[in-house]
């Protein structure tokens, strides 16, 4: 009940004309970047972050999170009308969404996508509302070893559960952690990895890296491809919306299942991509007519969209409660919080109640407003695709440069951004994942601080990470996740080697 | 499917040719990147060793944590070199074709020039030049449209950042002439 009271307080903080206007601006910008090919949630948030630098933290995070919701909604438009998934998590939406559009049911498919996005996000926001205060009060009992164990768990789960080659995830993560350590050592004040450069004294700002890695590299990649589009136009009538909503109860199990999968994979670093595919596959597996999937079945739109959006939203839970982002976008938002002098983690709920509950309230309101906005403006946003990319690309480059410069008023950062743009382009092409790289850049100094403090407490004894049940469990779980592929293979080969008779006896 | 349904039809006049020859394959780039990362790991390990990568009376020295990360980075890069050599898929996968590289350079080089111009002319004039040049040369868009878009965008950015939000941006002689 306390959460409800605080949430109402959050709505009171939020319901000002200025914040509502920023919310609308954020949503429109978000849908815009979601629709544009090549851009999407993390890129949009990274590129538009500088717009928020001089705002107060609550307005800034409301606008940024609305950019994020908008981008999530916008991705569905291109997936369904053009068969172009704006983001990897929209791939599963194209399986049935595009066939529906081909059958002249684009409006139904879009309504289904937007509605299920809304439902997925709503379930995740409810989870955040009721779980975040509990997790953060629990996390207040954490000491440095517990925090390091949680960071370790995050890193290990990326390696163990990620779809990419393991060594490439390790490369991305160790490189990110190393770059986070460039500059002045926070404990001793000594300089590290600066090689005499005065510009590197400040360290490598992770937002500069993110703008280059996501913004510039995406422009390079998008320009590389053919940008011809051929797709369906759609406008959504109230009658279509009501017809789809009337059928919603029929799909309650799919929506619930996908929401649970999404929330789980959002809190753990499984991510929205895995969530959307898992949601789709499970909907197909439990369906009475699995063969109809892929041929324009509305359930095939509900399932991945609900799961992806539940996951994208739930990823904000560990960010707010523990200071550990569950996705690339959450990592960028976390960087934003740091720019505004806020320290994400358990203390945020104690020290900055207005901010936290204003943000949570904005998740509710942003999703409702976003749903109405996209349902009523689909044709306008779909026509954005008519703007030639040659006009959009230089504007994005300029926005990235403004962002990189504005963070520390340093020209060096603009060059650094360009360098990271090239790195991002090459990494994406040879499949070195950027999400763990970003995560490591954001969490690097915190993880190192927690590690060093733990070592100082224990006098250098690694046993500190098994000193009590809590830290021991987290550390052991981290190690298990790191070697998960190996364990999985061993279990599978053991299962195969057991003779069928023995299995039957068991 | 009737043609009336296909209301949105955008073509790309400067699209890369489909049959353009490959400049290089993914394996070569993967090996080159792994070698570069290995070299970076060695340099960083050396620097951290120099800074102090062991323990003193107060705990781990400043280079301790990054030193071991450099070792991990070096190890993973070495593994990457081996894996890339063994990967048949990467050997046949095109990293970039000549036509694609031309398109990438058509964005990268103007961006590079934009960064240089930003230092000399300030961000707004540089932005104007980048947008006009890019729209006109790469996009083959009409001059008046390019000029108008560039002017409006640069003006909006100036008003937003310099006037409304007080974010100080690099300026050049033009802004100085107007007293900014």
TrEMBL record, chain A:
Range of residues in the leader sequence: none
* Span of domain DUF112: 20-438
Read off the InterPro entries from this record.
DUF112_TM
Task: Indicate yes or no for the key word S-adenosyl-L-methionine.
Answer: no
Q: Which domain of life is it from?
A: Bacteria
Residue ranges of the TM segments? 20-40, 60-82, 109-135, 147-163, 200-220, 251-278, 319-343, 355-375, 387-408, 414-443, 464-487
Q: What UniProt keywords are attached to this protein's entry?
A: Membrane, Transmembrane, Transmembrane helix
UniProt-recorded name of the protein: Tripartite tricarboxylate transporter permease
Organism, scientific name: Bradyrhizobium ontarionense
Automatic annotation (TrEMBL), chain B:
Q: What is this protein called?
A: Tripartite tricarboxylate transporter TctB family protein
Question: Which UniProt keywords are listed?
Answer: Membrane, Transmembrane, Transmembrane helix
Name all DUF1468 domain ranges. 32-170
Bias kind Acidic residues: ranges: 1-20
State the superkingdom: Bacteria
Gene source species: Bradyrhizobium ontarionense
Listed InterPro entries: DUF1468 (IPR009936)
Q: Name one Pfam family in it.
A: TctB
Residue ranges spanning the membrane: these are: 28-46, 66-86, 107-135, 141-165
Q: What residue spans carry the region label Disordered?
A: 1-23
């Amino acid at each position: 009940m306390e959460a409800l009271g605080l949430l109402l307080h959050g709505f009171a903080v939020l319901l000002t004309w200025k914040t509502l206007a920023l919310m609308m601006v954020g949503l429109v910008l978000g849908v815009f970047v979601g629709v544009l090919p090549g851009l999407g949630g993390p890129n949009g948030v990274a590129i538009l972050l500088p717009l928020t630098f001089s705002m107060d933290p609550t307005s800034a995070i409301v606008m940024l999170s609305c950019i994020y919701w908008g981008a999530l909604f916008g991705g569905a438009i291109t997936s369904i009308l053009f068969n172009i998934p704006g983001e990897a998590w929209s791939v599963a939406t194209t399986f049935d969404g595009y066939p529906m559009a081909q059958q002249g049911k684009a409006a139904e498919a879009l309504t289904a996508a937007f509605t299920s996005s809304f439902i997925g996000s709503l379930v995740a926001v409810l989870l955040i509302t009721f779980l975040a205060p509990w997790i953060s009060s629990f996390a207040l009992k954490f000491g440095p070893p517990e925090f390091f164990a949680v960071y370790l768990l995050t890193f290990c789960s990326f390696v163990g559960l990620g779809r990419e080659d393991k060594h490439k995830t390790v490369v991305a993560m160790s490189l990110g952690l190393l770059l986070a350590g460039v500059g002045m050592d926070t404990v001793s004040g000594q300089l590290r990895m600066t090689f005499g450069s005065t510009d590197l004294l400040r360290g490598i700002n992770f937002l500069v890296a993110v703008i280059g890695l996501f913004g510039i590299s995406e422009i390079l990649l998008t320009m590389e491809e053919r940008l011809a589009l051929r797709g369906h136009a759609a406008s959504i009538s109230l009658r279509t919306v009501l017809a789809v909503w009337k059928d919603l109860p029929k799909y309650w199990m799919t929506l619930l299942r996908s929401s649970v999968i999404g929330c789980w994979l959002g809190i753990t670093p499984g991510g929205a991509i895995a969530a959307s595919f898992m949601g789709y596959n499970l909907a197909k597996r439990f369906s009475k007519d699995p063969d109809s999937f892929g041929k324009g079945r509305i359930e095939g739109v509900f399932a991945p969209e609900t799961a992806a959006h539940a996951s994208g939203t739930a990823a904000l839970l560990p960010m707010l409660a523990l200071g550990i982002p569950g996705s690339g976008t959450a990592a960028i938002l976390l960087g934003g919080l740091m720019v505004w002098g806020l320290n994400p983690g358990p203390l945020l709920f104690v020290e900055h109640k207005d901010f936290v509950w204003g943000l949570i309230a904005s998740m509710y309101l942003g999703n409702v407003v976003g749903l109405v906005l996209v349902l009523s403006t689909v044709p306008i946003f779909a026509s954005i695709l008519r703007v030639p990319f040659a006009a959009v690309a230089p504007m994005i480059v300029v926005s990235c440069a403004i962002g990189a410069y504005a963070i520390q008023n340093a020209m060096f950062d603009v060059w650094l951004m360009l360098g990271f743009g090239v790195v991002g382009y090459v990494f994406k092409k040879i499949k070195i994942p950027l999400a763990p790289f970003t995560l490591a850049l954001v969490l690097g100094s915190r993880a190192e601080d927690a590690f060093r403090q733990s070592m100082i407490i224990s006098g250098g004894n690694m046993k500190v990470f098994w000193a009590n049940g809590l830290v021991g469990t987290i550390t052991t779980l981290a190690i298990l996740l790191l070697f998960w592929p190996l364990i999985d293979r061993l279990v599978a080969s053991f299962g195969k080697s057991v003779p069928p008779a023995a299995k039957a006896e068991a | 499917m009737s043609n009336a349904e296909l209301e949105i039809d955008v073509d790309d006049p400067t699209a890369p040719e489909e049959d353009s020859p490959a400049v290089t394959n993914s394996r070569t780039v993967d090996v080159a990147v792994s070698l570069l990362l290995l070299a970076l790991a060695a340099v960083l390990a050396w620097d951290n060793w120099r800074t102090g990568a062991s323990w003193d009376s107060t705990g781990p020295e400043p280079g301790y944590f990054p030193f071991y990360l450099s070792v991990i980075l070096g190890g993973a890069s070495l593994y990457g070199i081996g894996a890339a050599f063994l990967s048949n898929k990467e050997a046949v996968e095109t990293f970039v074709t000549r036509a694609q590289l031309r398109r990438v350079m058509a964005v990268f080089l103007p961006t590079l020039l934009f960064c240089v111009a930003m230092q000399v002319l300030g961000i707004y004039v540089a932005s104007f030049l980048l947008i006009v040049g890019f729209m006109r040369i790469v996009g083959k868009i009409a001059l008046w449209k390019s000029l108008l878009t560039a002017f409006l965008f640069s003006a909006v950015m100036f008003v937003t950042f310099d006037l409304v939000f007080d974010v100080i941006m690099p300026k050049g002689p033009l802004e100085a002439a107007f007293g900014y």
